[in-house]
Design goal:
Layout lengths: L3 E3 L2 E3 L7 H7 L32 E3 L5 E4 L5 E5 L26 H16 L4 E5 L12 H5 L3 H26 L2 E8 L7 E4 L4 H4 L3 H6 L9 H6 L6 H6 L4 H7 L4 E2 L18 H6 L7 E8 L8 H23 L4
Parallel strand pairs: 1-3, 5-6, 5-7, 7-10, 8-9
Antiparallel strand pairs: 1-2, 3-4, 4-6, 8-10
């Protein structure tokens, strides 16, 4: 069993044994359509997991509401909306913008992706998971909305979570100089395809490559470093939605995506999530060593069943291995 630590205390995580049953019981939901904007320079975080860190070992915050599993790959995966815990001492979030529906099976999907990547490459991605249900804590928002008015109780977990992500990013920088953060979500939009959010709006994506390049929008993207300084020699627009982009690589493996060669942009009137708080805070528009993408997954064929999750994880890992080799200079 994976070791779980909380400070210097090591214990087993009781939720692990029943996670499959609980996840199956969770109702389908989708992320909010707006993109909250954090400050360009994130405020310092003072509380977080304490090392030394061992790849494959899980660390919990003081309340056991957020989990960080250390890795040794140039990849960090965040699962902010798949938690199941509903502690009675936490009131339900209540605010005008509060969304409380979970992204069904995304925590389980994240763990399958980590295991698949590890088996494929011999290196383990870092994993940060919010274990609380979204009714209690939204781990893809700034603190006031994330806590839904319960700031005093949730400031610690919120700070611990972002410190854990920063810890993972720092390890990626030390080992590999650059890497990628995936913020994993689920959507319930009409079109069953993956929505890849880079902080570029649907309107921006509907520009042709030359016009989009001329706007300077790439420098404000959550993958600014990848688009402008990738190692493949391709143009930023090709890295965004060409055949060797993440969307193009997933499309070639049977998973429709936007942006990609077949769908360079959402059409007018089509729903599209372009990224959120985590993508903005942890991506390379703020000169981070890590790029960040929000992957919004449709339900059927990706999140709905064990076979679907395994097939998608395999396709995503294959795509990431190619992307890392082409643009990051990393090979397992």
């Amino acid at each position: 069993m994976t070791k779980i630590t909380n400070g210097l205390r090591r214990r087993r995580a009781p939720w692990c044994a029943s996670i499959g049953v609980l996840l199956a019981a969770c109702s389908s939901g989708a992320s909010a359509p707006t993109t909250p904007e954090p400050p360009p320079t994130p405020p310092p975080v003072t509380a977080g997991p304490v090392g030394p860190f061992v790849a494959g070992t899980a660390y919990l915050d003081a309340r056991s509401w957020v989990q960080y599993t250390a890795g040794d790959a140039p990849l960090v995966i965040i699962a902010p909306h798949g938690g199941l815990l509903l502690p009675g001492e936490l009131p339900d979030r209540s605010c005008a913008a509060c969304v409380t529906a979970n992204d069904t099976n995304t925590q389980l999907l994240a763990r399958v992706i980590v295991d698949t990547f590890t088996a494929r490459t011999g290196r383990r991605p870092h994993l940060v998971v919010n274990l609380l249900h979204r009714r209690k804590f939204d781990a893809n928002r700034d603190l006031p909305e994330a806590s839904g008015g319960n700031t005093a109780a949730l400031r610690g977990p919120w700070e611990w979570m972002h410190a854990a992500i920063d810890t993972a990013k720092a390890d990626v920088g030390r080992r590999w100089q650059r890497g990628l953060v995936i913020d994993l979500h689920g959507h319930a939009h009409a079109i069953p395809r993956l929505e890849l959010g880079y902080l570029l709006t649907a309107t921006q994506l509907r520009l042709d490559d030359a016009a989009l390049t001329s706007t300077g929008a790439f420098s404000a993207s959550s993958v600014a470093r990848l688009l402008q300084n990738g190692l493949s020699g391709r143009t930023p627009a090709q890295r965004l939605r060409g055949t060797t982009s993440l969307g193009g690589l997933l499309e070639a493996r049977g998973f429709a995506a936007v942006p990609s060669p077949a769908a360079p942009a959402p059409l007018v009137g089509e729903d599209y999530f372009n990224g959120g708080f985590n993508t903005a805070r942890h991506g390379s528009r703020s000169f981070s060593t890590t790029d960040a993408v929000q992957i919004e997954c449709h339900f059927t064929g990706v999140r709905d069943a064990e076979t679907s999750r395994a097939a998608f994880a395999s396709a995503l890992v294959d795509a990431l291995v190619v992307l890392f080799a082409n643009e990051y200079g990393w090979q397992p």
